[in-house]
Amino acid sequence: MDALDEIKEFLACETPDSWIQAALQNQDILLIDHAHCEKKAASTAMNLMFRYVDRLDLLNKMSRLAREELIHFEQVLAIMQDRDVVYDHMSPARYAAGMRKHVRTSEPGRLIDLLIIGAFIEARSCERFAKLAPFLDEELAKFYRSLLKSEGRHYQDYLGLAADYAGEPIDERVAFFCEVERELIEAPDDEFRFHSGAPTFI
């Protein structure tokens, strides 16, 4: 099983075709929000590094992840510049906040939940890059395909750290967030973002 097949099995649902349609009709918003997502992914990794300073494996993996996400951020900005798309403020999708509201407050539960959520965000990004690529122009399709390997590894890093630090099976918690994630992806959404749900405006 390759990484993409593993990710599809990990996720409870595929991206709705209506979201693909919305993405193709809103490519400027797709790029702007994608840039925001890469920046936020780097920030999330850095926040984990500052909060959990005693976990060497986490520090090493999150440091590498943050660097890669910032490189992706720069790459998206370059593509936007070539296409005269202006990088600007944008309200975030409900997606990440919709999962984070279920994070436990005591440790190590809090860390485990944040790592599991990180795995779902990276897995969904990977799935969307793969699903979008066949419909995009050559430059953007090539770029999105190039991200699959690193995003797939990020998903594995997050999930592996969660399993290592839990000290017990995490299947139940993964299943819980799997259902939360599915609902966010399949539920009607009145705005388009990289991680938005099924659009209501098509």
From TrEMBL:
GO biological process: one example: tRNA modification
InterPro entries documented for this protein: Ferritin-like, Ferritin-like_SF, tRNA-Hydrxlase_MiaE
Gene Ontology molecular functions: tRNA 2-(methylsulfanyl)-N(6)-isopentenyladenosine(37) hydroxylase activity
PANTHER family: TRNA 2-(METHYLSULFANYL)-N(6)-ISOPENTENYLADENOSINE(37) HYDROXYLASE, TRNA-(MS[2]IO[6]A)-HYDROXYLASE
Protein name, per record: tRNA-(Ms[2]io[6]A)-hydroxylase
Organism the protein comes from: Neptuniibacter caesariensis
